Amino acid sequence: MGGTGTLAGDSLAPSNVTVTTGGTLAPGTPTNPVTTFTVAGNLDLSGGGTLSIDVAGATSNDAVVVMGNVILGGSLTAQPVGSFLPRNNQWTILTATGSVSGAFVNRSEGYGVRTIGKSVVLIRMLVGSIFTVR
């Protein structure tokens, strides 16, 4: 996917997904903004596209499940839903059955990302915290 397209929803992409510059993968729908999107193959975000994640509570967030390998890259945007004010939280935003490699080049200010095994975790620390998010 390239150009200005957005792949959104709460269901299954039946094959490999590649998100390139100008493209966005955004789990959720207008009526169900926080949901899980499943990719039946590999997910490639290394081409400069964006993964857009909504967080709606301490344990409520968008997620992507990949039934293959993941290559990270491009941008990660995270935005709270409704009146939720994220602070000192972490959310598993992506899991894979295969490998997870690469890193996001850009991300929303105040958020950090860690790859732990076959999962990618989004971290939000309270402004002024003694911790540094990298």
Q: What order do the helices and strands follow?
A: EEEEEEEEEEEEEEEE
* Computed Rg: 14 Å
Question: How many strands?
Answer: 16
- Total domain units: 1
The biggest sheet, with number of strands, parallel, antiparallel or mixed sense and barrel status, is: 6 strands, mixed
Approximately how much beta-strand content do the residues carry? Answer: over 45%
Helix fraction?
under 10%
What are the segments in which pLDDT stays under 50 over at least 5 consecutive residues? Answer: 128-134
- Helix count, DSSP H or I runs of 4 or more residues: 0
Please state the average pLDDT score.
89
Overall SS class: mainly beta
The quaternary structure here is single chain
Question: Could you walk me through the main structural features you see in this protein, from its secondary elements to its overall organization?
Answer:
This protein is mainly beta and 134 residues long. The chain is 0% helix and 53% strand. The strands form 3 sheets. Strands 1, 4, 7, 8, 11 and 14 form a 6-stranded mixed beta sheet that branches. It has a 6-stranded mixed beta sheet with strand order 2-5-9-12-16-15, with no helix packed on it. Strands 3-6-10-13 form a 4-stranded parallel beta sheet, with no helix packed on it. The radius of gyration is 14 Å and the shape is globular. The model is unreliable at 128-134 (pLDDT under 50).
